[in-house]
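As a warm-up, study this chain.
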Amino acid sequence: MSANPFFACLDSCNCPDSYGTYDWIIAAASSETETCIIWENAEKLISKDHWWFGILGYDSAPYLEPILSPMPPKAQVLPEVAFFKAEIVCYKKRNEEKITILGNEAFLSDSITNENLSIQEVELTPSIDRLLYLEKVEKLKNEILNGNVYEINLTCCFSGKTKISHPEIWYLHLKDKYPTPMSMLFKFKHLWMIGNSPERFLQKTASTLISQPIKGTIARGKTKEQDQEQIESLKHSEKNQAENVMIVDLVRNDLNRCCIPGSVQVPELFGIHSFSKVHHMISTISGELEFPEDIWKPLRDTFPPGSMTGAPKIMAMELITREEPVARGWYAGANGYFTPEGDFDFAVVIRSFIYDSQKELLTYNSGGAITWDSDPKEEYEEMLVKASAVLEGLTSKTP
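Now compare it with the structure written out below.
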């Protein structure tokens, strides 16, 4: 893996996923392959007939909405988007036994066999400390009370210097410990994303679109009885239902921009999905594309993920730019792939580490949705719960 300048591994981790197509996909390419680092070029280069893998960074949003204010300073220097054309693709489809290999197998390296993972001890420093986070939640609640926004996502960036000997081995460790249906290891030269996303941003299969936003999170219980109590608490939480339904309405509105009128439906509302450390409230929205041959229109019409902004989306993004001291980079964007048939599947970039092996810099973001009845202390604790689900797998200290 580490021998390839461009590499992607997507794994369902055997998690339940009604809409997943593959158990896993592995792709790689040499330095001679085509790549894209800005959205405009991606639209020109990425089309049918080839597999492409990569990330649409949150910071590319001003290209789609020029009225947005400039992003704040970046925690890491990352390309706006990062895609490569695969020279080999290896995958196993769900409910099939066979493994398909397309391309030159020489690009798949087994160089990490028998290697050991080494991570220097690192303390990740938050971009927003506890007191400031509480103050920002109160400020955003005032924006809601004044009618400027209904819901907004506030996130904190944790960053620190460290040396990771083999990010790919760390990814394997994390996905085994914290399995999610859309985990991803992505390498773009010296930049790595080690992701354990449970959230589907947007999937296109022929003419059908699917989006599955998450709003509502609670920690797993320590016993079976406590776990069921946590599920019931989340299921009947008026606050979490309010957050979830607002994002469902936002996604419905986004899908209506590119789907046949009347085709947008909500086949699942307030579904409770369980993971290794947390339970999530997830809803599913579907629609039929009006122009399915245009693979980029649905992405232009829906990006960035509404669950990571708030509603109304543009105003929420303006407030995010004002209140978050560092740009999100790839976080809160989308990672995934395009198929030669013109289909795609993208996860929301959450529960994900971004690592620059040249600068030996690691970042991780966590956050939550703010509504009019949010309790600042509870919001801060929820943000830490989400972060600790992955951060405890790293030799770091959390605030």
